[in-house]
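Annotated sample (chain length 253).
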Amino acid sequence: MNTVLCVQDLCKRYPGFLLDHVSFSLAPHRIMGLIGKNGAGKSTTLKAMLNMVSPESGRVTVFHQDFYQQETACKARIGVVFGGMEFYPLKTLAAITAVTKRFYAHWDQAQYQRYLGYFGLDERKKFKELSNGMKVKYLLTLALSHHAELLILDEPTSGLDPVSREELLHLFRQIVEGEHCSILFSTHITSDLDKCADDITYLQKGKVLQSADKETFLRSFDHLRAPGDTMPLTLEEIMLRTERRTWDDEAAL
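Output written by the structure step:
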């Protein structure tokens, strides 16, 4: 299988939490949603993949290169957006961009200007003056301005109003179809994935419960439907019923 990202048996231990042999892969020109309730390990998975926290074991391959051995080369071809990233709050966007673009050989200033206009961003503003939604849009602008072939996004639509969320989801589809890019993003807003995801990976308590294309993923949880229910379950319903069943099983022990 041709992949842009392959995660194999990724493990990271914290007191009271274990990221337990997480494995999944992302094919070219696809959008994968990484779902799970708070504390399931979504952000830890992304950070361990990117070596932002050191995994105990596992392998991550990006563009068929070992990420941990070729980290600099791999990072030049990806874009990363994490919620809560503050950069330099007292610096203007122009000053932050001037530093950031030095790290990318394929920086496209014209594309950067286009996304500034698209998102309505003012380079003269300081980073701290942006709303949470505008911060996400600025970070996406940076990620998209060096022709990244893979975007890794942690809760990119969190804090956005409904109109901005729709705008962003539409942009994701455009990017995948027109920019020859793939996207992996974590989210707790499962309705976003109903609209734009091709594949779903579901984490529960640090383990991958299921990872598949969206249609196969939804079918694999048919056993959770109530008797006589002919309507397919939504992602939100799957999460609610799975977590409730897990809680019931644990309470019965």
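Annotation: The chain has nine helices and ten strands.
Annotation: The chain has a mean pLDDT of 90.
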